[in-house]
Amino acid sequence: METRSYYRLCSSCKKELPFESTFFRCSVSTCNRARMPLTFCSLACFEAHVPVVRHREAWAEEDLAPSRAEWEREQAAEVADAAALAATAAPAMTVTSTAQVARPERRIVAACGAISPLGLSQSEVPREVLIVASKLKAYIRARSGMNTSDGAFDVLSDIVRELCDAAIQKAHAAGRKTVMDRDF
Fold first, then answer.
1. Which of 10, 63, 140, 152 has the most CB atoms less than 10 A away?
2. pTM of the entire structure?
3. 98 and 132: one domain?
C-alpha cells in the first residue's frame, strides 16, 4: 500500500492537498470519475480548469479531504475489492470479432493476477486506456451510425489487457521474447 503525506494533488497546479483539508471539486460528473477525479486547491485553480474542458455550466463544490486513517482504510478496501473481483472473475471469456468471421470462435484464458515473465505483478502494470478513442468512435459511427460512450474505452482496454496477457503467456511458454500474431 502507498504511503504518502497528502491526500491528492491539485489537478491544475499540482500542489499537495493535505489530509483533513478543504478542497474543491468540479460539479460536472465527467470530472469526478472514480479513476481520475479532478480536485483543486483553490477557486483560481478550478476556474483555470473550466475553459480548458469547455464546460457550459459548472461550479466548484467544496469538499473535505478524509483523515489519513480513513484514506488508508479506503485504499485497503479497494485492494481487497480488486482481489475479490479477480478471484471471482470468469476463468475464460469468448472473443469474436469481424477479423475472426472465417475462423471458429476461440476461447481466451486470462491470466488474472498472475506474475508476468518480467516479474511485474498486476498492480504494478499501468492501467491506462489502450484504445484510441477517436478511431473507435469513427469506426462505430461508420459501421452503425451510433455514438460511443466514454465508459466503453475502459471496458475495451480491460479486454485488450486480458488478450495481451494470454498472448504473453503463450509467447513465454514457447520460449520467445516477442509476442507474435499467432499468440493471439
1. 10
2. 0.43
3. yes
